[in-house]
Design goal:
Elements: H1 2-27, H2 40-48, E1 72-76, E2 79-84, E3 88-93, H3 94-103, E4 118-120, E5 123-128, E6 131-136, E7 140-145, E8 151-156, E9 165-166, H4 167-175, H5 180-187, E10 192-196, E11 203-212, E12 214-219, E13 224-228, E14 231-235, E15 239-243, E16 249-253, E17 256-260, E18 262-267, E19 281-284, H6 286-289, E20 291-294, E21 298-303, E22 308-315, H7 316-320, H8 333-349, E23 362-363, H9 374-377, H10 383-391, E24 393-396, E25 399-408, E26 411-412, E27 417-418, H11 428-432, E28 459-464, H12 465-472, E29 479-484, E30 490-496, E31 502-506, H13 507-514, E32 521-523
Parallel strand pairs: 9-27, 11-23
Antiparallel strand pairs: 1-2, 2-3, 4-5, 5-6, 6-7, 8-28, 8-32, 10-25, 11-22, 12-15, 12-19, 13-14, 13-18, 15-16, 16-17, 18-21, 19-20, 21-22, 24-25, 25-26, 29-30, 30-31
């Protein structure tokens, strides 16, 4: 009996312990509903809604700050709270939260919530950065986006693609006493300025006119000499050149017409026709549709793409560079010399095969570099530019023996340049997608200094609604959100319409479509 009682007592004790253990386990929080802390703005909103016994229920995770605009969120059993410095903290739950989720959360058309739910008549509403969501028992949840603004305000800096040499930066450095070599080796680092004898007297073909059915060539004094096949016809009068449907060119000289697959035109006082008479020729439709005046070289005219193609054949150093108009001649000499070396390097690099699009080495516009010929070389006040060109080359008689260029590992660099950047030049990878060792982002803060006198150090522009919609291909544009590189260049610009549709462009694409000064800007 005593043994049996002892056994029964032991059994009862074990049973009681087991029950206590089960009760203890049952009261422990499960991992899903573990106690997660709340604090800051999110904690205040959570507390105002009743905490764990309120509308949201217990927290199901910790606070995370990994969202756009440096936003944070915390999840709860029945919803979530989102916070940004701009919007503050606001909770979402139920059907409105589901609708927000479907719209893309904070990255979608609505952005972040800017209020909690509130009543408006028979509706429940919640406001967001870019609209609101309404709910009623009869219609459910509906997304209502804000109306498109009439215009957008753009604030930018710099002019051009911003890669390589900054021209206003060069001016600022020259004022500081820097040499042309120091300027170039800063912007093209680790490339170096060196002298070369190669290509010193090479001929360069410059496209002067394209896309025209006829052009005229008029001598200012002296005579022209037209080569048509084996014929040479001289004239002191204007000549007219036209394309024919047969693919040839027809030239009218002294009242007679001649045809050939191509012609060349020379004039007195050049290396092609020496003599004391100094003649210049005016070519219609040159220089962006106006009239170009040329003193050196000769012309070659043929057909290309069912239109006339007029080329100037010029020696790169003595005949082409003096006519480059890429920097005001009134600027400091070291800045002008830096430009001359960069322009020469660019031209030398293009001396290889002719471009199929123009049958030329370079264009006379900013697609390559702006060439105005005699109009610039002989203009009032242009002598400092001619001096800068001469100072960067060695001449013996009429022959150039050597000239300064910029090279990297023994090869000519692609010496691109633009007026200025937004304070840091852009890398080739940022703008064109390919990394180039000597076209990295460089400090260009000097271009924004008072000494540089840069009118593009900062700029503003107003973008009309219709223009924005057309650029992005949307019915309207409600918001434009940009992402930027380390140099400030716009990487992507994403537009959202009032119906939630989106369209993205690169900064370079948007700059081109809108005619902006640069792709370094913000949208307000």
């Amino acid at each position: 009996m005593r043994a049996s009682a002892a056994v029964r007592l032991t059994a009862l004790m074990i049973s009681a312990f087991a029950v206590s253990l089960l009760l203890l386990i049952a009261t422990e929080p499960s991992p899903v509903h573990a106690a997660y802390p709340t604090g800051g703005g999110i904690g205040k909103v959570y507390k105002s809604l009743g905490g764990s016994s309120g509308r949201l229920g217990p927290a199901t995770g910790s606070e995370h700050c990994t969202l756009i605009q440096n936003g944070c969120y915390q999840s709860f059993r029945n919803g979530s709270i989102h916070w940004t410095k701009t919007t503050g903290a606001h909770a979402t739950w139920g059907a409105i939260r589901t609708a927000w989720k479907k719209s893309g959360w904070e990255k979608g058309a609505l952005g972040y919530p800017t209020s909690n739910e509130y009543k408006s008549g028979s509706e429940t509403r919640q406001s967001f950065q870019k609209g609101r969501i309404t709910w009623s028992s009869s219609r459910g949840a509906a997304v209502i986006l804000a109306k498109a603004t009439a215009s957008f305000s753009l604030k930018g800096a710099g002019y051009g693609h911003g890669v390589g040499l900054s021209q206003y930066g060069a001016r600022g450095m020259a004022v500081q006493g820097k040499s042309a070599t120091q300027i170039l080796e800063h912007y093209y680092d680790p490339a170096q300025v060196t002298s070369t004898t190669k290509s010193a007297n090479a001929n360069l073909k410059v496209q002067l006119v394209s896309g025209k059915q006829s052009v005229t060539v008029t001598p200012s004094a002296g005579r022209l000499r037209v080569h048509v096949g084996s014929k040479k016809i001289e004239s002191s009068q204007k000549i007219t050149v036209e394309r024919t449907s047969a693919g040839t060119v027809k030239v009218s000289v002294n009242g007679k017409s001649y045809q050939s697959s191509w012609i060349s035109v020379e004039w007195q006082g050049t290396r092609y026709w020496t003599g004391s008479q100094k003649t210049t020729v005016a070519v219609s439709s040159a220089q962006n549709g106006s009239t170009g005046t040329y003193r050196h070289g000769k012309l070659e005219i043929r057909q290309l793409s069912k239109a006339l193609n007029v080329l100037g054949v010029l020696r790169v150093n003595s005949e082409y560079l003096p006519g480059i108009a890429e920097m005001p001649a009134s600027w400091q000499q070291e800045a002008l010399r830096a430009q001359a070396i960069a322009s020469r390097t660019y031209a030398y690099r293009n001396l290889g095969s002719l471009k199929s699009a123009c049958a030329c080495n370079v264009y006379d516009e900013v697609t390559s570099q702006r060439f105005l010929g005699w109009s610039h070389e002989n203009a009032s006040g242009s002598s400092p530019w001619r001096q800068a060109v001469a100072a960067t080359q060695n001449v013996s008689g009429s022959s150039v023996k050597s000239a300064k260029v910029v090279t990297y590992k023994g090869s000519l660099i692609n010496a691109v340049y633009s007026p200025s950047s937004g304070g840091k030049t852009n890398s080739a990878a940022e703008v064109w997608g390919s990394s180039v060792p000597y076209l990295k982002s460089r400090d260009d803060s000097v271009a924004k200094s008072k000494a540089a006198g840069n009118p593009y150090a900062s700029w503003t522009a107003t973008l009309k609604q219709s223009t924005a919609a057309n650029a992005f291909g949307l019915k309207d544009v409600r918001t434009i959100v940009v992402t930027r590189t380390g140099s400030g260049l716009v990487k992507t610009a994403k537009a959202t319409s009032t119906n939630g549709q989106t369209s993205s462009l690169t900064g370079a694409q948007l700059r081109s479509k809108l005619g902006l000064r640069s792709a370094t800007f913000t949208v307000g």
